[in-house]
């Protein structure tokens, strides 16, 4: 495997994933509606009962939903990978001389389109509710970059899960189930200083808390008034968590994918020709 071949294969397979996304308006609708529901639910139903150090829960909430959007959106990468494995799309790819890592990387990178869409919808909803970022253009761009980086790291985790399970239905449960404690045992929606000590300790070291605190600081939405080492060094911790997740789950996801497909019989010469034609049709979709 050479770097140019990996890049070419990733580009072609990624284009196929993007074409499928363009023809899935229901998926795009879910990505767009979900953050709006969270902003409205927490902002208007529960917001009056939650106190934050800065005093403006609306700003506190919008930043949390921005991070929550990319985290929940990352599950779609694992579900999409499981669907391709179950439907035999991967067998078509295996009939072609493409690096196996390109299939995983293409899935993760193409998923960032829905992540960017979710961020845009959430920010737009916040602006309609009088939320304003105060960190300037540089801070907003840095926050967007961190959100996309974290979404990429979390997508690798989801792809690993999607390759490990045996059906799309199992992937839908497995890729979302663990995200709920990760999301709610953090400072995305409530400050950690009001949590019980064992839960607070977990929340403070939660990767999502580090990213959320950093994004709040970049957007000028403030940070918790009091906190320990994780809050004081949130930017370093956020980047560190992203680096660790990518370094750990990029090779692991490829390894799990290879194990999952190792038992599949390799296509014959006739099968390769048929698979290549199938791949062409799949890419045109």
Automatic annotation (TrEMBL):
Its main location: membrane. GO terms for molecular function: ABC-type transporter activity. The chain crosses the membrane at residues 27-51, 57-82, 103-129, 141-161, 173-190, 238-257. It is a multi-pass membrane protein. Residues 265-285 are annotated as: Disordered. GO terms for cellular component: ATP-binding cassette (ABC) transporter complex. Residues 26-260 form the ABC transmembrane type-2 domain. GO terms for biological process: response to antibiotic. The keyword Aminoacyl-tRNA synthetase does not apply. Keywords: Antibiotic resistance, Cell membrane, Membrane, Transmembrane, Transmembrane helix, Transport. The keyword Heme does not apply. It is found in: Cell membrane; Membrane. Belongs to the ABC-2 integral membrane protein family. This is Transport permease protein. The lineage of its organism: Bacteria, Bacillati, Actinomycetota, Actinomycetes, Streptosporangiales.
